[in-house]
Design brief:
- The complex is a heterodimer of chains A (284) and B (107).
- Chain A has 9 helices and no strands.
- Chain A has helices at 20-44, 54-80, 85-90, 112-131, 139-166, 171-187, 196-201, 209-226, 251-266.
- Chain A is an all-alpha fold.
- In chain B, strands 2-1-3 form a 3-stranded antiparallel beta sheet.
- The chains are: A mainly alpha (284), B alpha+beta (107).
- The interface between A and B is medium-sized, with 13 and 13 residues.
């Protein structure tokens, strides 16, 4: 793919080959990926039966299912590193989640423009960051990228199609408001975590996150402006200390975390049913 | 606006009507049709067609195939071939074999 800025690192084929340093960096990278997908999907499902039309409902549910599936791919890799599903999802305290604050924000009631802007900002970032993992030194990660990218194409087409239509006429004000509201949170998609330097130096990711941020900005700013929607200056829109990536979240997160872990705790921490024998699911 | 959806399961097969989607335009109809009519089924290709563009004639307004007895269309008697037709069968098979050997001569 793109020219790597790092000299090619030795490929790592199995968890057993990881040094401690590589392992810590890999875990940080996987948690970012998995948590983003899981929490976004969790939010998307709130639209079930509330989307503007039946078709829109099914399409978004389909996207949510895909994102849950992608979260599963990344959590499975963490399972291979020794985590249990309960540790990864059901029993992990809210401050140990490292998703971007973009994905945890609640939807203003009935605001379809919010979900479209959010998924546009997210899916564009997703394409860029997955491309930077296609040649990851950790082969089990690199192997899974193509399958995810194929599903992501539908997500982008779906959301871009909607975006074009919502920016004609009165919908544009809603889109503009959603961009103002969500853009600072979207910037946290590219907020570096404490292992950034290692993730890049060890070749787990082949494009520095700062460059990803730049190419994401190039794309979303030009697309949104072409639709006559202005985008805040990134420098003025810098998020608060709650950037998600550091475990510090907006107040909406505690509520959401409580909502999706409540049943698990009410049932006294059951062993979740695994649909796949062996647990190492590789998607459909 | 309703778009009728036709799914082709594999290259070369017919596109078969499989349902419809509500969508304001073709692009969204294609996006929705993918989810509703191809996600869980084999699909090689989908068509979406505005319902209004589909012409229809039905059995209430047309007598499909006419109303008189046209039983001769159904070559039912050929199912009654038994040993007493051995000679005819042999002649027919010979003729077919000759045709296959020398197709030009029969043009």
């Amino acid at each position: 793919m793109s020219e790597s800025t790092q000299s090619a690192a030795d490929p790592i084929a199995t968890p057993g080959e990881l040094t401690d340093r590589e392992r810590a960096a890999l875990e940080a990278l996987l948690f970012r990926l998995a948590d983003d997908e899981f929490v976004l999907a969790e939010r998307y499902t709130e639209w079930q039966i509330y989307a503007p039309t039946l078709e829109a409902d099914l399409a978004l549910a389909n996207v949510a299912q895909d994102e849950f599936g992608h979260a599963r791919l990344w959590y499975d890799l963490l399972c291979e590193l020794g985590y249990s599903e309960a540790e990864l999802v059901w029993e992990r305290p809210p401050e140990a989640w490292h998703h971007s604050t973009l994905v945890e924000r609640p939807f203003p009631e009935g605001d379809w423009a919010d979900v479209i802007v959010r998924s546009y900002l997210y899916d564009t970032a997703e394409r860029i960051r997955l491309a930077a993992l296609e040649d990851s030194a950790y082969l089990p990660l690199a192997d899974r990228i193509r399958k995810v990218q194929q599903e992501e194409r539908y997500h982008r087409e779906h959301t871009e199609t909607w975006l074009e239509r919502l920016t004609v006429g009165e919908g544009r004000d809603r889109v503009a408001a959603a961009v103002d509201r969500l853009f600072p949170h979207a910037l946290s998609l590219f907020a570096p975590g404490p292992r950034r330097a290692d993730i890049e130096a060890l070749g787990l990711r082949t494009e520095p996150i700062a460059e990803q941020r730049r190419s994401w900005l190039d794309t979303v700013v030009s697309v949104l402006e072409s639709l006559d929607v202005s985008v805040p200056e990134p420098a003025d829109a810098s998020p608060s200390e709650a950037i998600g990536r550091n475990g510090c979240h907006t107040d909406a997160w505690d509520e959401l975390h409580d909502a999706f872990t409540r049943t698990y705790h009410e049932l006294g921490g059951p062993d979740p049913v695994s649909l796949r024998a062996g647990g190492g699911g590789r998607g459909r | 606006m309703i778009w009728e959806v036709f799914r082709q399961e594999e290259p070369g097969a017919y596109h078969t009507h499989c349902g419809n989607v509500h969508a304001p335009d073709r692009e969204l109809a294609l996006a929705f049709a993918q989810v509703q009519h191809a996600r869980r089924m084999n699909a090689n290709s989908l068509w979406v067609v505005p319902r209004a563009e589909i012409g229809e004639v039905d059995a209430e307004t047309a007598a499909f195939g006419g109303t008189t007895d046209k039983a001769y269309r159904w070559a039912m008697t050929y199912t009654d071939v038994d040993a007493s037709f051995a000679e005819e069968v042999e002649a027919s098979e010979r003729e077919q074999a000759e045709t296959a050997d020398a197709p030009e001569a029969h043009r």
